[in-house]
Design brief:
about 200 residues; Arc Repressor Mutant, subunit A; Rna Polymerase Sigma Factor, Chain: A; 2 domains
Length: about 200
């Protein structure tokens, strides 16, 4: 029996109530998979573990936990951890070519809670979308797949993927202010190097 939906609901309810059991349950059920996911980007297990541990601390200390919803919890976590991993990689690359660590730190400020909050709000809206639309959004924005790869995964045409994606973004713009949707797209796609070459 699949207990993930029940577990997700428990986690979200506990976190919204500021109950520490929520972050413990989240850690116990997601830590290993998030470390594996992070390691696929940064290719350094110790660094991946540190990054995910810091993510859990920031999540507990921030306000974004109040907006988490069970249906989009895993996608939300993967997007935030991936974005942090890419931010860490950019910072590491910048340090290789720059002697002044303080200047690099100023450029790559810690991932702030307001960006996480926008992503959480958008994922809250995405949770209300039909399953196929959510699968398309996850394929493009979470997994970073090309339209053709999403189409193959779902057994639909590329034009169907484009239509579902376009309709979803239009619905998000109707339900949320345009600035919030634009910020979401900017934050999510800035960590997807292939997003502009999707075919």
């Amino acid at each position: 029996m699949d207990t993930a939906p029940t577990t997700n609901k428990q986690i979200c309810d506990l976190l919204r109530a500021h109950d520490p059991r929520g972050i413990k349950l989240l850690f116990d059920t997601r830590y290993k998979s998030l470390v594996s996911w992070t390691n696929t980007f940064i290719n350094d297990l110790a660094e991946a573990e540190d990054l995910v541990q810091e993510f859990f601390i920031d999540l507990w200390n921030g306000n974004v936990k109040e907006e988490l919803l069970p249906g989009t919890l895993d996608s939300f976590l993967r997007v935030l951890v991936r974005n942090r991993a890419y931010n860490q990689m950019k910072k590491r690359d910048a340090l290789k070519n720059h002697e002044d660590i303080e200047k690099v730190d100023a450029i790559f400020q810690e991932y702030d809670d307001s960006k996480d909050k926008v992503i959480a709000q958008v994922f809250s809206e995405i949770e209300t979308f039909p399953e196929r639309t959510r699968q398309v959004l996850n394929g493009v924005f979470v997994d970073g797949l090309k339209y053709r790869e999403v189409a193959d995964r779902l057994g639909v045409s590329v034009s169907t993927v484009k239509t579902l994606l376009g309709n979803a973004i239009e619905k998000l713009r109707e339900r949320l202010d345009n600035d919030r949707v634009a910020q979401f797209l900017l934050v999510v796609t800035s960590f997807l190097p292939r997003i502009h070459t999707k075919k």
